[in-house]
Design goal:
The protein is α+β, with helices and mostly antiparallel strands. Helices cover 51% and strands 10% of the residues. The chain folds into 2 domains: 82 residues, Glutaredoxin; 100 residues, Glutathione S-transferase Yfyf (Class Pi), Chain A, domain 2 (Up-down Bundle).
């Protein structure tokens, strides 16, 4: 059985939980208190961060690496495109998400209001740029739910928590977010602490 060491409020762990539940696999989630991590996290991950996936002798960290491994090992439903060109595009977009959106999460979760304001505006503006995609298609890569939707879902769920308000121009993005939030895999992946992040 796979074990996922997962932070109960960590957006990167949230991604991995979504993939595991979407796949309907046999796994165990080991909840980790981010403010009081057990010592074994530092032993299995040199960066002392979650998520960490342990599958027999294999130990993986970093959410995108974990999720691609799960997707390749358990290919149904497939979350990365089968076509090499589309897969490369998906990886490029995942990389963009990390640098334009998710690398700002530590600032958004800090308490320095002056820095947060600029960061919130940056994340909001990048999300608004994505909105037109969803006037033409259901998900990031078309009509099929994919790893890109998994990657961005935890951020969309936390917009209220991070005090990011999207303008009306992003209404298609918010409808897209609701489509993700209504998926059973997404609902099952939420921890009690995450459920209360949205009113």
């Amino acid at each position: 059985m796979m074990n996922l060491y997962s932070g109960t409020t960590d957006p990167f762990s949230h991604r991995c939980r979504i993939v595991l539940y979407e796949k309907g696999m046999d796994f165990e989630v080991i909840d980790v208190d981010l403010y009081n991590k057990p010592e074994d996290i530092a032993v299995i991950n040199p960066y002392n961060r979650v998520p960490v996936l342990v599958d027999r002798d294999l130990v993986l960290y970093e959410s995108n690496i974990i999720n691609e491994y799960i997707d390749e090992r358990f290919p149904h439903p497939q979350l990365m495109p089968p076509d090499p060109i589309m897969r490369a595009r998906a990886r490029q977009l995942l990389h963009t998400f990390e640098h334009e959106l998710f690398e700002h999460i530590p600032v958004l979760e800090a308490t320095q209001k002056s820095v947060e304001k600029k960061t919130r505006a940056h994340v909001r503006d990048h999300l608004v740029q994505l909105a037109p995609i969803f006037t033409k298609q259901k998900f990031m890569l078309g009509d099929e739910f994919s790893m890109l939707d998994v990657a961005i879902a935890p951020l969309l769920w936390r917009l209220e928590l991070y005090d990011i308000e999207l303008p009306k121009a992003a209404s298609a993005l918010m409808k897209y977010a609701e489509r993700i939030f209504s998926r059973q895999g997404f609902i099952d992946a939420l921890t009690p602490s995450e459920k209360v992040m949205r009113r």
